[in-house]
């Protein structure tokens, strides 16, 4: 189980993460644009180069982020453009935690299988904090 900060930008995520990498060092674990996603995502052509997901390890944590995409809700608001990413050890735990976090809050995306292979959902809890629950597939030994 891990908790990591997840930052959301309008269209300058790559610039911000290049800056963070210059400050903390290291290499990106993942860099994906909206153009790397499936064609049926409905992202406009002008937004395909925006960052869909980026991860930068910093010590024992991972700083993650993305740009917003037109048509995927309101864009970020500076000062509240973050959420907490939770990575549980099982789908059962993901469902349990997601159910509790979203109770009295708002579900952004229900828990479901995603094209990148994870079981994922997002919500805002009743205190206004955004959460992303991402359960990676079990790796066979």
Description of the molecule:
With 141 residues, this protein is α+β, with helices and mostly antiparallel strands. Helix content is 17%, strand content 38%. A hairpin with a 5-residue loop joins strand 7 and strand 8. The longest helix is centred in the N-terminal third of the chain and has 12 residues, at 13-24. The two termini are 19 Å apart. The mean pLDDT is 89.
Strand arrangement within the widest β-sheet reads 2-3-4-1-5-8-7-6
Task: Give helix % range.
Answer: 10-25%
CATH A-level architecture of the largest domain: 2-Layer Sandwich
Mean pLDDT: 89
Number of strands: 8
User: What's the CATH class label of the largest domain?
Assistant: Alpha Beta
Could you tell me how far the N terminus lies from the C terminus, measured between alpha carbons in angstroms?
Answer: 19 Å
Q: Helix/strand-derived class?
A: alpha+beta
Which stretches of 5+ consecutive residues score pLDDT under 50?
none
Number of domains: 2
What name does CATH use for the topology of the largest domain? Signal recognition particle alu RNA binding heterodimer, srp9/1
Summed up, the helix count is 2
Largest sheet: 8 strands, mixed
SSE diagram, text form:
Elements lengths: L1 E8 L3 H12 L5 E4 L17 E8 L2 E7 L14 E6 L3 H12 L3 E8 L5 E6 L5 E6 L6
Parallel strand pairs: 1-4, 5-8
Antiparallel strand pairs: 1-5, 2-3, 3-4, 6-7, 7-8
Please summarize what this structure is.
It contains two helices and eight strands; from the N terminus they run E-H-E-E-E-E-H-E-E-E. The chain has helices spanning 13-24, 91-102, and strands spanning 2-9, 30-33, 51-58, 61-67, 82-87, 106-113, 119-124, 130-135. It has an eight-stranded mixed sheet, covered by helices on one side.
């Amino acid at each position: 189980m891990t908790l990591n900060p997840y930052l959301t930008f309008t269209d300058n995520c790559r610039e911000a993460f290049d800056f963070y990498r210059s400050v903390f060092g290291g290499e990106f674990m993942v860099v994906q644009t909206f153009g790397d996603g499936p064609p049926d995502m409905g992202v406009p052509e002008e937004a395909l180069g925006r960052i869909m997901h980026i991860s930068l390890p910093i010590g024992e944590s991972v700083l993650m982020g993305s740009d917003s995409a037109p048509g995927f809700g309101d864009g970020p608001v500076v000062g509240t453009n973050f959420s907490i990413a939770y990575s549980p050890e099982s789908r059962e735990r993901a469902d349990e935690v997601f159910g509790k976090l979203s109770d009295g809050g708002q579900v952004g995306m229900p828990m479901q299988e995603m094209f990148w292979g994870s079981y994922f959902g997002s919500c805002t809890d009743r205190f206004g904090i955004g959460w992303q629950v991402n359960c990676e597939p079990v790796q066979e030994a």
